[in-house]
Amino acid sequence: MDHHNFEGKEIPHIKLDSKMTIKELVEIYASSGFNGRQLGEAAKLYSKMIHDDATICLTVAGALTPVGFGGIIKTLLDKGFVDWIVTTGANVYHEDHFAWGFPIKQGHSEVDDNILYDKEIVRIRDVYLKFYETLEMEDQVIQKIFRDKIVNKPFTTAEFCNVLGSITKQKAKYPEKSFVATAYDLDVPVYISTLKDSSLALNLAIHRLKNQQYNLDFVREIIEQAAIVYNSKKSGILELGGGVPKNTAQQTGPLLDQILRKDHGGQDYIIQITDARPDTGGLSGATLQEGKSWGKVHDSHEDLITVYTDATIAFPILALYALSNEEPRKPKRLYKKLDKYYKSLQDSAVNVPDKFAEILKKSEINLD
Q1: What is the pLDDT of residue 283?
Q2: DSSP code of residue 117
Q3: Are 98 and 202 in contact (CB under 8 A)?
Q4: How far is 212 from 201, CA to CA, in rounded Å?
Q5: Residue 296: active-site member
Q6: Which of 57, 148, 236, 271 is most exposed, with the fewest beta carbons within 10 Å of its own?
Q7: How many other CB atoms are found less than 10 A from the CB of residue 25?
């Protein structure tokens, strides 16, 4: 699209009203400039993804559940606006506190952490947890759940979260406060992009020291994720932050094209909410357009929007706009389809083009 002309929309002299709706507020954002405009356009793109019945992946980096945002995720799951999730182990671990009623409170960031340590208060920026009443209690829950679950056999993190959601649903004091329990109910796969980098995995150590084996089948996991995209008519990602969850969802394209030779093309839509800069070369700040060169997205020119801001600011606005404008969708229940999707990808032949054989020949590399 050529933007080298003076044909853009008129920028209004913004007028706010006390009775303004979220739809009207988003229109104001979209008609302004800078990241306000990006947020408005991102909210509209999310609605488009929902309206087009795309298979939507939500990726969650950072520490969003300790500030209560698991409730927003749960609401989007209930409405059918998220079909699968990739998140950090920390977000799953801390979300479970709400379901069991373990204390989490607003604290402060300008404090002496030596004093907090002596008082057995754990800090996540300006959020406080109790060392024993919150973390140690959660540790006991995780240890007891997985004492005899997923032991001595291969498992994926989707299976791990399905077990956790099942127990939370059955036994927690407030299961309605867990998006993981809701995901279990609605058969939404929840993948943990780096299980070992979290308290969830730390709590498996006590059983491993008693010779219990936990065998994460990470290859099966990445194939399942690619199979979801492969079996979707349209697919998109809503990325909160960057990190490993972002790459986990986006690498489905390279797996399908670069490795499996499917010429799939990657995602149809991606929204990225990040505070990371692109010029440092890190994945968290990498532009979505750059992903085209990797086969992560279909088109670098459209349906890709990055909002440079804190997800705790932008996510509620984007989510509320969708909830206010789109009708609920029937759950896709992808968890129950994973085996079928995996098999469909497995059954499709992997044909290496002749030109690749020629490249190997010219390089004088012998891999036999």
Answers
A1: 87
A2: H
A3: no
A4: 13
A5: yes
A6: 148
A7: 17
Strands of the sheet containing 121-124, edge to edge, are 104-106, 127-130, 121-124
Q: Report the relative pairing of strands 154-155 and 215-216 from DSSP bridges.
A: parallel
- In angstroms, the CA 283 to CA 145 distance is 34
Question: Chunked in runs of 10, what are the mean pLDDT values of the chain (368 residues)?
Answer: 87 95 96 97 98 98 96 98 98 98 98 98 98 98 97 97 98 98 98 96 97 97 97 97 96 93 92 94 91 92 95 98 97 98 85 64 72
Match 């992903």 to its residue by tokens. 291
CB atoms within 10 A of CB 346: 10
* Residue 41 in tokens: 């356009």
Which pLDDT value is given to residue 364?
Answer: 72
Token look-up 């791990």 returns 160
Q: What is the model's pLDDT at position 358?
A: 72
What lies within 8 Å, CB to CB, of 327 at 6+ separation is: none
Q: What are the helix (H) ranges across 194-310? A: 199-202, 205-208, 218-230, 243-250, 252-254
- The helix (H) or strand (E) run that includes residue 66 is none
Residue 67 corresponds to which amino acid? V
Q: Which residues pair with 239 in a beta bridge?
A: 59, 272
Residues paired with residue 122 on neighbouring β-strands, in sequence order:
129
Could you give the domains of the chain?
22-363 (3.40.910.10)
Find the farthest-apart pair of alpha carbons in the chain and give their distance in angstroms, rounded.
72
Q: How far apart are CA 159 and CA 276, in angstroms?
A: 31
Q: How many whole angstroms separate alpha carbon 217 and alpha carbon 157?
A: 8
- Residue 362 is predicted with a pLDDT of 75
Question: Which of the residues 74, 130, 246, 296 is marked catalytic?
Answer: 296
Rounded Cα distance between 180 and 245, Å, is 16
Query: Which residues are CB-contacts of 242 (< 8 A; sequence separation ≥ 6)?
Result: 61, 272, 274, 276, 282, 283, 284, 285, 286
Q: Is 191 within 8 Å of 156 (Cβ atoms)?
A: yes
8 Å CB contact between 199 and 137: no
Distance CA 221, CA 324 (A): 34
